[in-house]
Write a structure and sequence with these properties.
The complex is a heterodimer of chains A (about 270) and B (about 270). Chain A has about 270 residues and is mainly alpha-helical. Chain A is built from 9 helices and no strands. Chain A is globular, with a radius of gyration of 22 Å. The mean pLDDT of chain A is about 90. In chain B, the strands form 2 sheets. Chain B has a 6-stranded mixed sheet, sandwiched between helices. Chain B has a 4-stranded antiparallel sheet with strand order 2-1-4-5, covered by helices on one side. Chains A and B meet through helix 5 of A and helix 2 and helix 3 of B. The structure holds adenosine-5'-diphosphate (ADP) and magnesium ion. The site of adenosine-5'-diphosphate has 10 residues of chain B, from helix 1. The site of adenosine-5'-diphosphate (ADP) has 10 residues of chain B, from helix 1.
């Protein structure tokens, strides 16, 4: 019996140490990223602009088709679901409000974040992880090149720009999808749908959505980088970490969404 | 002996396992020092401590640059980041798997430290890169990517990158591991010619017997985290130590584990 108690305490202790270790690693990564993105450029150490451009093309430009397709269908589906309810009240024109507000406030940011987490967050984890396994990170370090500055900062800047941009694009295409469905299947007048949408949307809705998107971009980059750097050796571990990065960034995105939405609800 | 690096009491752990057990030795300046020992005896770990990638649990690593200024003889385990970067600029490392950046061409790989640490213009960098690639026998391969090269060529390119900043100290981890004997001999020749041509202190980690006798001036032999021999190549040949003899005569160790180690392993502690 004493043995079992001991092992229980041992278990709690080990878990605590594990969590604390991870917390320490996360906070030192955030600290490094913060330093190399904001402080060191002020000290004259330039950010690698060419790498930023490459990452913008990879994470932003290349994601345009998939974001457009998904955005379009989400808009269409949303309009159909809204019409299903509103038809009963003869209030079909409010489809415009429902589509516009729910896409800009919620679905645009969150679905774009899930797409980007799957496309780019996983790619970050896989790239950094395989570099870690092949000692490329160590090689950078021995050349006096900070791996966080070299690898993470360009990705972070790219996603901080591209996440809101892709979200805005998703919003636009989603509303276009809703519009096309409304004027064809629902037989609403294009002009009145357009006016109704404009009336429903406020600058606040758009901006809170984009602020969320910006935060999601930061979360996705940090999670991808964290899991990448956690790799010690081997292709198998790279695969595991890549999967883990997608799962935990989607989880964290939803969590932060909850946090921001509550915040905006009470304070804006 | 004029030591370029003086190590004292170096102790390292992975988790609770002691991998290096209080090593004390010097790396003689402008010589080729070979660190030998069987696989898993801690060679790479030792190298990673010498280049400042890992911090030891105990011990000091003093690096002396040969001048007489008071900045000399610093302990790299105590250095701040800025001083450590200055030290890293003066050394080059070839990793066990060459560790070239796969996303960059060879030329860009070699140019990387130059772009990072110097203000040189692109045409000058191009010239330096071509010189370094010539040096290791990879003339004209600048536009190739690491994935397009054979193992031996990758190692050569890794050497070119390590030489990019004209280092005083050069570290090689298993330069000939995983290569066929002919390619391996070619790399040994390259190491010898580099050592003749440049004023360099070389540290080569290897488990290849053939390499030791062709390239070494000075030998450090490790076994399970302890130094079992240290001295010049002549002294090595004359050593009566049974463990050294066993290694030189390629005898398998009769007992792979000592009884107490074996007990530790099976009891999981
Ligand atoms: N990152 C690590 N974590 C835990 N153990 C390690 C790690 N790296 C190496 N080891 C262990 O430490 C010992 C020494 O490893 P290493 O220095 O790579 O040996 P060598 O280069 O001589 O083959 C080996 O038993 C190896 O399994
Ligand atoms: Mg090794």
């Amino acid at each position: 019996m004493p043995l079992r108690v001991e092992s229980l305490f041992g278990l709690i202790g080990r878990k605590t140490i594990y969590v604390l270790d991870n917390l320490h690693e996360v906070s030192s990564l955030i600290n490094d990223v913060f330093y190399w993105t904001l402080i060191s450029p002020l000290k004259g150490k330039q950010i690698r602009f060419r790498a930023v451009i490459t990452e913008i093309v990879r994470t932003g430009y290349n994601a345009v088709p998939i974001v457009a397709i998904i955005g379009f269908f989400v808009g269409v589906i949303l309009a159909l679901q809204a019409a299903y309810q509103l038809r009963k009240f003869g209030a079909l024109i409010y489809v415009a409000d429902l589509v516009g507000v729910s896409i800009t406030r919620e679905l645009g940011p969150i679905i774009t974040a899930i797409i980007v987490a799957g496309r780019s967050g996983s790619a970050f984890a896989a790239e950094i992880g395989s570099m870690k396994a092949a000692e490329e990170i160590d090689a950078l370090d021995t050349m006096g090149i900070n791996p966080v500055r070299f690898l993470v900062v360009p990705k972070l800047i790219a996603l901080m720009l591209m996440q809101p941009a892709l979200t805005a694009f998703f919003d636009l295409i989603g509303m276009l999808g809703g519009f096309l469905l409304a004027i064809s299947l629902l037989e609403l007048y294009p002009y009145s749908y357009y006016v109704e949408t404009l009336n429903a949307l406020s600058v606040k809705d758009l901006l809170t959505g984009l602020v969320k998107a910006w935060a999601f971009g930061v979360v996705i980059t940090l999670v991808g980088a964290y899991h990448g750097f956690k790799v010690k050796a081997g292709a198998e571990e790279v695969g595991m970490r890549t999967t883990a990065s997608v799962v935990s960034s989607i989880f964290l995105v939803i969590f932060f969404d909850f946090f921001f939405t509550t915040l905006f609800y009470y304070f804006l | 002996m004029d030591a370029a690096i003086e190590v004292s009491g170096l102790t390292a752990y992975y988790g609770s396992r002691e991998v290096l057990k209080g090593l004390t030795f010097g790396i003689p300046r402008l010589m080729t020092t070979v660190v030998v020992g069987g696989s898993g005896c801690g060679k790479t770990t030792l190298l990673k401590h010498l280049i400042g990638l890992l911090k030891p649990a105990k011990g000091t690593i003093n690096v002396k640059c040969g001048c007489t200024s008071d900045k000399c003889g610093k302990d790299i385990t105590m250095m701040d980041d800025a001083a450590l970067i200055e030290f890293k600029k003066k050394m080059g490392v070839l990793f066990q798997g060459a560790a070239l950046l796969n996303s960059l061409s060879l030329a860009d790989n070699v140019a990387l430290p130059l772009r990072e640490h110097t203000q040189l213009k692109q045409p000058i960098i191009d010239i330096i890169v071509r010189m370094k690639l010539d040096l290791v026998g990879l003339t004209g391969f600048g536009d190739y990517y690491p994935a397009q090269l054979s193992g031996g060529m990758k190692k050569r390119a890794g050497i070119a990158r390590a030489m990019a900043m004209d280092p005083e100290l050069l570290f090689f981890d298993e330069p000939s591991a995983g290569l066929d004997p002919v390619t391996a001999a070619g790399l040994d020749e390259l190491i010898i010619s580099l050592h003749k041509t440049f004023k360099l202190t070389l540290v080569v980690v290897t488990h290849e017997l053939a390499s030791i006798f062709t390239i070494a001036d000075y030998v450090i032999m490790l076994d399970a985290g302890n130094i079992i021999f240290i001295g010049t190549i002549e002294e090595l040949k004359a050593s009566p130590n049974p463990k050294v003899l066993a290694f030189l005569q390629r005898k398998a160790e009769e007992e792979p584990y000592r009884p107490e180690d074996y007990f530790k392993i099976i009891s999981g502690s």
